[in-house]
Design a protein that fits this description.
With 710 residues, this protein is an alpha+beta fold. The protein is 25% helix and 25% strand. The longest helix is centred in the C-terminal third of the chain and has 22 residues. The radius of gyration is 26 Å and the shape is globular.
């Protein structure tokens, strides 16, 4: 048991674990109010155009079918900043998979059968759904995601690159990628007596409530959203998605509760995806490896519904010191579903390309990849000029090298063979920004010794209930077993969503402040506690949202060992190791789980995961788990996650940085670099599937490295 002396940092078991494995924990579509109906979306089968006609006769004639909502019969929605939620409002079809009707029935089987019986004709228009090599329509947006300027320039990077003795000029590609959380997106909506109650699979129920209130013209106090247990999200549940709007529309229309769950195939076109990114990297250095120029240019796609620009060049603004730099984004608006957040948006694809190019430079210079990175450590953030609150990247690299046995590595590529298998090792760095938002929380001390934390946090599988209890226990000076955490409902103090690796930092700050305030009340109180206990509240607005004078980032180092079958092209990852600098680790058990989960997701990015758009139909093909391959148990090797003892006084009262996303950031690059070390062939497009690797083993080497002085 963890006592109050070590409440933070202890490997405390997550307190909802038993409820999850026994089925006691209820997810959004496991609530079934009396009289509940079931809904199933009808989605467009063309890439662009308009609905010409909808024949509902066969669908409405089926048993147990209640109604079919169409753009003519659906409730009208108010205007919203998020055009992806303006469903069933007109006859336009902006992309394949767009909702054009919703069947409502007494059973889910009847709803699905009726959806298949709806007959649709379209007036189609010419479409373009595939990001080409040099899309003519690509433009530079004002901003990439997160408010980052699309372009940042220091000095004259093109001239510095041209003058550099050693130059790397390479192109890397990452395909579309899909979030496939274990729990698909779903909602149960109940419109009753002018109130809307929704159980939603969401990363932030306060945001869902605000948006639903806006869309349906309701005061927020008449909308309740509950997201008590969420089976993964990875960003795809970070903002409201069409499923919750459709469920609410169906309930408003029928006056009965309605349950709607998206099928696995529908997820790829209705909840966002990681947009494909085409990277051009130009690195120029002197013969000793000191960078003179870093140029990272990214082209990606967005939809015509809503602009979303993957900020994949932004990490290059953080990572390495150089005299000059250029980071730039361009985007092409296509007839595709709107891309959205996916674990480490920007950082995951951007660091894959950057860290692969750095590895290429190391080989060109015949310098150890770790040493090259250490030589280009900046003493302040290159882009902003701000001092780092803490930066222990080199320590992570050195500690990882020690644990991995890097010193015994023969740097020559393509020489270690075990029968048909070639083996190799690789390394890559990782970074992720420290993000935090204002939050509210209350903590109550009851006469029986129970302490209750209330905050509308969302646990998407990260163990938030447990860690917040630990934060409160330490601040109160009590045993963690005496603390109960209530989360996941808009009836609780308002809190930001679980995203951007900012959840615990944001909620924990408010919980800490409320707990400290309560501790002060308890010290001053005399006699027994009142029957309702004593309560303290906190709101971190004005403190958590203050602009920091420091550049705040987490860092890490990833190491991989792979084997490549020269007969089939199969890549097997034998070992993965991550070492991180993430401030104070608040729970050793849940932190390890998060790091390893991110690394497994990075393994999938490297070897198996690929979204593919069919140019003829505009549809994502292979859009279920039979066609889109996430890693299975047999794909996952021995994985180790460690961290260094990092003390950073410029973060939050707990001294913590986010950990949910940094585990994925450098993994794909480390694996790709290991495949090069094994084979001597540089593969510059993900995923490294057997067909691609086998073909590359016999193809001529691609150019990309120039030694101007040699």
């Amino acid at each position: 048991m963890a006592s109050h002396a070590n409440a933070l940092g202890a490997p405390t078991e997550r307190r909802e674990g038993r409820a999850k494995v026994t089925g006691e924990a209820l997810y959004a579509t496991e609530y079934t109010p009396p009289g509940c109906l079931y809904a199933w979306p009808v989605t467009a089968t063309v890439a662009r155009g308009r609905i010409a006609s909808l024949d509902l006769g066969a669908a409405l004639a089926l048993p147990d079918v209640v109604d079919v909502l169409t753009p003519e019969s659906a409730p009208r929605l108010a205007a919203s900043d998020d055009a992806t939620l303006a469903v069933l409002q007109d006859a336009k079809v902006p992309h394949h998979g767009w909702p054009i009707a919703v069947v409502i029935a007494e059973t889910i089987e009847a709803a699905r059968a009726a959806a298949e019986a709806v007959r649709v004709t379209y007036d189609t228009e010419p479409h373009e759904s595939v990001l080409g090599d040099d899309p003519a329509a690509a433009y530079r947006p004002e901003e990439a995601n997160g408010g980052h300027p699309a372009e940042r320039r220091r000095g004259e990077p093109e001239a510095a690159f041209a003058a550099a003795p050693v130059r790397v000029d390479v192109r890397y590609r990452v395909p579309p990628l899909h979030n496939h959380p274990m729990e698909p997106h779903g909602a149960t909506a109940n419109w009753h007596d002018g109130r809307l109650t929704v159980y939603d699979s969401s990363q932030g129920s306060d945001t869902v409530r605000s948006v639903l209130a806006e869309l349906f013209g309701l005061p927020e106090e008449q909308v309740t959203v509950i997201s008590e247990h969420v089976g993964g999200g990875f960003g795809s549940k970070g903002t409201p998605r069409p499923h919750v709007v459709l469920a609410a529309m169906a309930s408003v229309h029928t006056g009965r509760p309605v349950k709607l769950t998206l099928s696995r195939r529908q997820l790829t076109e209705l909840v966002g995806h990681r947009a494909p990114t085409d990277h051009r990297l130009r690195l120029g250095s002197d013969d000793e490896g000191t960078l003179a120029s870093v140029i990272h240019e990214v082209t990606t796609h967005t939809s015509r519904v809503k602009e979303f620009v993957e900020q994949a060049a932004v990490p290059a603004r953080v990572m390495y010191g150089s005299a000059t730099s250029l980071t730039d984004h361009k985007v092409a608006a296509l007839d595709v579903p709107t891309p959205s957040w996916m674990r480490a948006p920007g950082e995951a694809p951007g660091m894959y390309a950057l860290e692969s190019a750095v590895d290429e430079l190391a080989y060109a210079l015949d310098i150890d990849p770790i040493e090259l990175r250490a030589r280009n450590e900046p003493d302040q953030e290159p882009d902003s000029g701000l001092p780092f609150s803490s930066r222990h990247l080199v320590e992570c690299l050195r500690e990882g090298a020690r644990r991995f046995g890097w010193a015994d590595r023969d740097a020559r590529p393509g020489i270690r063979r075990e029968g048909a298998w070639l083996t190799g090792t690789g390394v890559a760095s990782a970074t992720y920004p420290v993000l935090v938002s204002p939050s509210r929380a209350t903590v109550t001390a009851h006469p029986d010794g129970l302490h209750v934390v209330r905050v509308n946090a969302t646990d998407i599988g990260t163990g938030a209930r447990t860690v917040l209890a630990q934060v409160a226990a330490e601040a109160l000076g009590v045993d963690v077993e005496s603390v109960r955490t209530e989360i996941g409902s808009t009836g609780l103090p308002r809190a930001p969503l679980a995203g951007g690796s900012s959840g615990t930092a944001s909620w924990g700050w408010a919980v800490h402040d409320a707990s400290r305030a309560l501790a002060g009340q308890l010290r001053r109180h005399t006699g027994p506690l009142p029957p309702d206990g004593l309560t303290a509240a906190a709101d971190t607005k004005g403190s958590a949202d203050q602009k920091s004078p420091y550049a705040r980032h987490a860092f890490g180092a990833h190491f991989a060992e792979v084997a490549v079958d020269t007969d089939t092209g199969e890549v097997r990852v034998r070992r993965l190791l991550g070492v991180y600098a993430v401030g104070r680790v608040l729970n050793a058990r849940t932190a390890t789980s998060q790091f390893i989960g991110g690394m497994v997701m990075g393994l999938g990015m490297a070897l198996t995961e690929r979204g593919t758009v069919d140019p003829a139909s505009g549809a994502f093909i292979g859009s279920d788990l039979a066609g889109y391959h996430v890693p299975a148990h047999a794909d996952v090797p021995a994985i180790e996650a460690h961290w260094i003892d990092e003390r950073d006084e410029h973060l939050n009262p707990m001294g913590s940085k986010g950990i949910g996303e940094i585990g994925i950031v450098g993994t794909a690059a480390a694996i790709g670099n290991a495949v090069h070390h094994a084979t001597g062939v540089r593969f510059r497009e993900l995923p490294l599937t057997p067909d691609r690797v086998h073909g590359g083993l016999t193809a001529p080497a691609a150019a990309g490295v120039t030694h101007a002085s040699r």
